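In this supplementary section we document a worked example of the pipeline. Step one takes a protein sequence of length 329 as its only input; no multiple sequence alignment statistics are reported here. Step two produces a three-dimensional model, which step three serialises into structure tokens for compact storage. The input and output of this example are shown verbatim.
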Amino acid sequence: MNKTIKRGLQVLLPLVLGGTILYWLYRDFDFFRVREVFWYGMNWWWMLISLIFGIFSHLFRGWRWRQTLEPLGACPRRSLCVNAIFISYAANLVLPRVGEISRCGILAKYDQISFSRSLGTVVTERILDVCCIGAITLFTFLLQTPVFGRFFRTTGTRLSDFTGLLTSAHLYIILFCVVALGILVWYLIRTFSFFEKVKDLMLHIWEGISSLRKVRNKWKFALYTFLIWFCYFMQFYVSFYCFSFTQHLGIAAGLVLFVGGTLAVVVPTPNGAGPWHFAIATLLVLYGVDATDAGIFALIVHGIQTFLIALLGIYALAALPFTNKKLSL
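The serialised model returned by step three reads:
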């Protein structure tokens, strides 16, 4: 397949997927009501506080990333790491999942840090993120099991389907094949000289992954991890107070919607557009919010957060060359 066509499809397909879901969700929506709430029915002071939490989540992530790079002998500036994070999230708006690659490229360009080793630290971050959201999801599920049950029934999903999947022989056959394939690939990498370059690349990535064990101040690393997810949650939860129809919702509801929205963005669309709106609007209705108001909340909050990500990305793109030029004088 032509590279241009392939890259075009990589950009187009996520947009089509997200756009299709948004069209289906808002096909008969009153957008004049959205404009009215946006200009006259929203508390912008609370929204400002929400956005401040969003900015700090990126700052803490950049500072934590710098910690994982230090055991590799790399000591990039904090500002460089933070700006790379800003750009990575903005890049994901264009092509989902490309941000992780772009921030490693930024370090390689501006601080000559090994791309493959820094990529390994990003892999470590993503594994840690999965563990964090898994723990938050489990805690929230135990706290609000009835709400999740109603959500599954509303969306036509039965909990018994998941139980059946876990007890299905097909699942374990697939897992066995995946493990066998992994063993075969590892054997080929170790055996044939043709794979020497791949072997070196994988070793560099593994070195980056294992850097977590050598982080000097693990308490600071743990604190940054907590603050990242605390800020993520607060950015979302504080947005409840921006609207009269959600300001009565408590922390338990905030956790449920936060988990639902976080899991929804796994679907590869720009910033989770479409799946995030569907999950948030559906869960808000389960908490008694009017369907129209729920759709307005999802549309406005996601739109403003996306605008912030784009704005931070533009700022970082403008700041990086200037900072690099200043340091080289």
